Amino acid sequence: MDEKQLLGSETAKGGFRNEDEVIDKFNNWKNDNVAQDWLVAMNYVIKDIEFVKAVKIGGNFKTDVQVQVTIKLKEAIDCLRMGSYPAACSD
Fold it and tell me: Is residue 19 predicted with pLDDT exceeding 90?
C-alpha cells in the first residue's frame, strides 16, 4: 500500500470511529450536552423531545448515521374530514 492509500485508509477508519461516537452521543442525548447542542442546532426544543435513536446504516464503501427524533405533539388532531366519514366531525 502506498502513502496515499495508507492515508485514505486511516482517514476512513477515523470516520467510522467518529460515527460510532456520534451514535453514542445521540443515544445518550438526555445526559450528553454535545448531543443536546446538536439537537438544538437542528431546531428541536429539548423539552419537547420524547425519544432519540441513532443507528449506523451502511453500504459497501460508505457508512452514515441515521437519527430518529420523536417529539411530543402540541395539539392532537381529533377530527379528520374524509369523503366517506363526514359524520365523524361536528361543526
Answer: no
